[in-house]
Inverse folding.
């Protein structure tokens, strides 16, 4: 009977949705076994109740010292829980916190680990799928046979699931030691004034824009279209637009109604971030530019000739 454990993640009073996504996976994997969530913290009843909708069992590990995430204390209490409740699989979010303590836990459990997993098949041993080379290749791996496996799970993959409405148990576990590292404070990243991942119209500029002073042309166009300006990585690296405007695998994934790609070659790292846009129009002076492979409409031409014409036409239309 397989016991699939999910270590829930929460921060600043909010349960990270990856916790529920992992339970969806746990329910798909468990067969006639159980999905078991573990929630660690202080004042965690609300999390436990939410998790119980999707878990057969929710283990609460509660203590004042567990208010904020601490990898040493997490390992300490998890190892106490697992001493009497042997997991077959432990699922942890492939988040900043998860990436930190999952390998540590795997070593303590003497378990093989696979990270950033997007598919799991546990019918004959443990097989997982994960991307390589920033998403260019997908690989299927078979982990060496073991009694316990630790997997970190990519966010946003296992969104579909069913409610199981399980029970909540107090694990009655407290940290057994003082951690060497102490929580000091949260420092929130600066929030940019524009969230491009929510925009319906994006005017995206690439290295073809040539100079920072030309960004205002894109801004004028974006304003006329009721959209926002974003950029490819070189534009961000040059400091012409802030980091939160970068589209691509190391920036943001966007899906607007209209994506205007101006002077962008269409490298796969960029395309991975915008290929699902509803309508893609590309302007590039190179007819061979890969961006034309994903664009619905393409203009082979100089963006500096296309800009004024577009602006003029839009102004005319607006009357
Ligand atoms: C690990 C890793 C992560 C990465 N992550 C990202 C990412 O998240 N986002 C991202 O964008 N990139 C990313 N990159 C970089 C990516 O590989 C490309 O280098 C980058 O996308 C190229 O940007 P570009 O298209 O603006 O520039 P270029 O490739 O230099 O293309 C400029 C294009 O503009 C055209 N052009 C020039 N002048 C004009 C003109 N006047 N009129 C019309 N067309 C013109 C040219 O024909 C050319 O096609 C990443 C790379 C690595 C290695």
């Amino acid at each position: 009977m397989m016991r699939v454990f999910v270590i829930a993640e929460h921060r600043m009073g909010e349960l990270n949705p990856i916790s529920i996504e992992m339970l969806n996976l746990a329910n798909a994997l468990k067969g006639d076994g159980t999905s078991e969530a573990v929630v660690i913290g202080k004042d965690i009843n609300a999390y436990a109740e939410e998790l119980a909708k999707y878990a057969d069992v929710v283990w609460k590990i509660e203590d004042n010292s567990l208010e904020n995430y601490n990898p040493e204390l997490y390992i300490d209490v998890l190892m106490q829980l697992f001493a009497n409740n042997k997991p077959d699989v432990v699922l942890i979010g492939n988040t900043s916190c998860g990436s930190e303590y999952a390998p540590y836990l795997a070593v303590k459990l003497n378990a093989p680990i696979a990270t950033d997993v997007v598919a799991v098949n546990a019918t004959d041993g443990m097989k997982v799928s994960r991307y390589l080379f920033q998403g260019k290749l997908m690989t299927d791996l078979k982990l060496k046979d073991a009694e316990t496996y630790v997997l970190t799970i990519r966010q946003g993959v296992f969104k579909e699931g069913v409610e199981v409405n399980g029970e909540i148990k107090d694990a009655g576990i407290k940290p057994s030691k003082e951690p060497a590292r102490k929580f000091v404070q949260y420092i929130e990243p600066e929030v940019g004034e524009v969230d491009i991942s929510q925009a319906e119209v994006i005017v995206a500029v690439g290295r073809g824009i040539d100079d920072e002073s030309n960004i205002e042309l894109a801004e004028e166009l974006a304003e006329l279209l009721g959209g926002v300006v974003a950029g490819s990585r070189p534009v961000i690296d040059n400091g012409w637009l802030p980091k939160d405007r970068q589209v691509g695998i190391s920036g943001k994934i966007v899906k607007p109604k209209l994506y205007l790609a101006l002077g962008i070659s269409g490298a796969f790292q960029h395309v991975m971030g915008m290929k699902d846009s509803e309508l893609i129009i590309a302007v590039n002076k190179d007819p061979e530019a890969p961006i034309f492979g994903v664009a619905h409409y393409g203009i082979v031409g100089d963006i500096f000739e296309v800009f004024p014409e577009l602006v003029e036409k839009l102004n005319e239309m607006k009357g």
Summary: The chain has two domains: 3-170, 196-318. The first helix runs from residue 18 to 29. The mean pLDDT is 94. Residues 3-170 form a domain with the Rossmann fold fold (CATH 3.40.50.620).
